[in-house]
Design brief:
Length: about 220
């Protein structure tokens, strides 16, 4: 029986969370807001609208949201030609595909950003499909991106495993009824990830690959 291996990208397959933090910090600064970087870091992984609301509050001037989000996009775009993938990220995706897992990305990235991230991972031959922010009404921590990834792979939630690095990833997977695996490479503490629903936690994707047979992927799809 076929299963789905669903992956977040930023902080999971690519070492990009802190690039997002810096870009968001500058975008907020340009709009006249001083937002502490640790707060931004813990919000990374949310869609732009949810991230802005979380950091500025529901009583902010929402008329600034589009300008802040656009500034982040422009600032982050300066890194597109040198986004770093984590060591062995592509190897992990290729190994899972070779074991008959259907690899699907579930990410808030889209367009040129998603293309740049896929170039960094360099494993397009292993990736079956992508559930991006363009494809859903509500991003993580809502279940919708993970549910869409399951549909794209043609599997039930019980046949899927989701790998991510944030609390939002774990909450989305849990709400979708998908087993959640966390990596610490995004900088979120193990305890926070476990409280949010992580069934297993690894240092990074290389550590997951080294222990694949003993991981939730070890029994094979389904």
């Amino acid at each position: 029986m076929t299963g789905a291996a669903i992956f977040d990208v930023d902080g999971t397959l690519t070492d990009t969370n802190h690039l997002h933090v810096v870009a968001w910090w500058e975008a907020f600064r340009q709009a006249g807001h001083t937002v502490p970087m640790p707060d931004i870091h813990r919000a990374v992984g949310l869609g732009s609208g949810d991230l802005i609301e979380r950091l500025l509050g529901a009583d902010r001037d929402p008329g600034q949201d589009e300008a802040i989000s656009s500034a982040h996009t422009v600032l982050y775009g300066t890194y597109f030609d040198r986004l770093p993938a984590f060591r062995r990220a592509g190897d992990l995706l290729r190994t899972l595909a070779g074991r008959d897992w259907r690899v699907v990305l579930a990410t808030s990235a889209s367009g040129a950003e998603l293309a740049a991230l896929r170039r960094a991972v360099d494993a397009d031959e292993a990736i079956r499909d992508t559930a991006s922010s363009d494809d859903v009404d509500r991003g993580k921590p809502a279940a919708e991106p993970v549910e869409l990834a399951c549909r794209l792979a043609g599997v039930t939630p019980g046949q899927a495993v989701f790998v991510g690095d944030t609390v939002w990833d774990m909450e989305a997977a849990t709400r979708a009824g998908v087993r959640a695996v966390a990596v610490l490479s995004g900088g979120i503490p193990r305890a926070d990830l476990e409280r949010a629903g992580a069934d297993a936690v690894y240092r990074d994707v290389a550590d997951l690959l080294d222990h694949l047979d003993d991981s939730p992927f070890g029994a094979g799809p389904g």
